[in-house]
Specification:
The protein is mainly α and 96 residues long. It has a domain of 67 residues. Helices cover 71% and strands 0% of the residues. It is built from four helices and no strands. α1 runs antiparallel to α2, α1 crosses α4 and α3 runs antiparallel to α4. The longest helix is centred in the middle third of the chain and has 21 residues. It is globular and about 35 Å long. The N terminus is likely disordered.
């Protein structure tokens, strides 16, 4: 997959948060999803990894969360947040 087709997660975050609020997601859900994506972005930055939603990148992120002692429930929540952000971006022709 060409990386130029992948969304810029950091750039999408504010509009995605607005979209979640417009969908009447609870404040706790918006906070949890935001933290999941922010954790992924921090991980990418600290590892020198491009913040791209590729299968390999996300799998490595989740594996490292688990290896660092995070609970499976936490790793799953982070993964679901990343997936929700990507799916939300794909639902609209021009992103958010």
């Amino acid at each position: 997959m060409s990386t130029n087709l992948l969304p810029d997660l950091a750039g999408l975050l504010p509009s995605w948060q607005l979209a979640l609020r417009a969908e009447r997601k609870s404040p706790a859900t918006v906070k949890s999803y935001t933290e999941g994506v922010a954790t992924f972005l921090r991980w990418c930055d600290s590892n020198g990894t491009a913040a791209e939603l590729t299968k390999a990148t996300v799998q490595t992120f989740v594996a490292e969360l688990l290896e660092s002692g995070r609970q499976p429930k936490t790793a799953t929540a982070r993964f679901l947040a990343i997936a929700a952000c990507f799916q939300g971006h794909r639902r609209t022709p021009s992103g958010y």
